[in-house]
Amino acid sequence: MAREHTDILIAGGGIAGLTAAAAFASQGRQVTLVSPAPPVVAQQEDGSDLRSTAFLQPARDLFDMAGLWPHLAPKAIPLEGLRIVDTVDWPPRTRDSREFRSEDILDGPFGWNLLNVDTNAALMSALEGRDGITLRFGTGFADMLTRDRESIVRLSDGTRLSAQLVVAMDGRNSAVRAAAGIDVDVIRYGQTALAFTVQHPLPHGNVSTEFYNEGGPFTMVPLPDVDGQPASAIVWMNPSAKAQNLSSLSSEELSDIASQRACNMFGPLRIISPIRHWPIAAQKARALTAPRTAILAEAAHVVPPIGAQGLNTSLNDLAALLKAMEGATDPGAPAVLAAYNKARAADISRRVQAIDLFNRITRSGLPSLQHLRLSGLKAIHGIAPVRKAVMRAGMGGN
Ligand SMILES: Cc1cc2nc3c(=O)[nH]c(=O)nc-3n(C[C@H](O)[C@H](O)[C@H](O)COP(=O)(O)OP(=O)(O)OC[C@H]3O[C@@H](n4cnc5c(N)ncnc54)[C@H](O)[C@@H]3O)c2cc1C
Predict the structure, then answer these.
(1) Does ligand 1 lie within 6 Å of residue 14's CB atom?
(2) What is the pLDDT of residues 192-213, one digit of tens each?
(3) Best substitution site from 170, 197, 276 to test ligand 1's pocket, by max atoms within 8 Å of Cβ?
(4) What is the pTM (predicted TM-score) of this model?
(5) What is the β-pairing status of strands 276-285 and 31-35?
(6) Considering only CA atoms, which residue is closest to atom 39 of ligand 1?
């Protein structure tokens, strides 16, 4: 029996993998995406992760190019500002509050926030039935045999197919990365993020607010109104033992503590979703390519959820791979993979290091580091060129 062939095999049906399928097909490639389970498209489903993702401006360019933005736009809330509130002690005392505005460096907003379930649903509606894309949910990448001109991939259901390029977007425990013999360096922080959704009486004004205090940031990202009331997605980083204690509280008790943690800036918060736990780690693959293989997204890098860097860095990987493939007849040729590696390796290393350092400083209860946090915020915000440079770097620029 003839073996099935595809130009590009994508392992992983997360947001990054689904976006890649549309983008590669827009370049005229035949794409097969495999993933053990279909994406969760409703908040009530068991696997719903309750997170939202703030997609920064460069992600929008990619969504436009792949024909995805019209599907995403109806559920997207623009992010026009980022407010940093520096607090100490308990109950928290505000030392300083600064707002970074998108009009300082851009014509439009910094980006758009969407619930992950809404993003998944929009991406699925855009992909289904689209030419050049085969979606195979219920099976995953198992292993591969790499030859000069192609890779022979065995899937977990036993079928085999050949691909000119295998793209690893199968998450932090990537089976493709392991099959390619690429190790990872991991930093564990002993921190856990709690993710949940709240309603609040006062409007968020399309501004994302990060409250810093010992333990890590408490981030409120604007969502569309729920039942006519303003709503936000919360990501709250804490030492893991404290996160465990917090999540054993009743919803009312936790809502009260969360309101205090947010300095009551938006009035009393009311939790309207279950609570999900995310252990925090940083991770970096020791290589981004192997013969016929490109490593992208969380298979390549994991960072703590600070400054909306995770998935946006993943989409920067995708943009770089698309650029490297432009005009190439063979998407997995050594020159394409070398160009991808050249475009991304240094930026990924810098970003993982910078967020690691930022996390260590901002979560610390040491007075010297708390002082550094405050003086750093004042210095960055107070000097216009520095402020703009930091904002541009956060958007994915160098
Ligand atoms: C609390 C929190 C908040 C965050 N907020 C933001 C934010 O605002 N902005 C931002 O940019 N980032 C954010 N991030 C980071 C972002 O969520 C992650 O970067 C992103 O979800 C990872 O996407 P991914 O597609 O790489 O991996 P995943 O979402 O983990 O997807 C991997 C996929 O691969 C599949 N898979 C597993 N094994 C196999 C296999 N053998 N074969 C094929 N497929 C396989 C899985 O089923 C899954 O579908 C946040 C992270 C956390 C923890």
Answers:
(1) yes
(2) 999 999 999 999 999 999 999 9
(3) 170
(4) 0.92
(5) unpaired
(6) 170
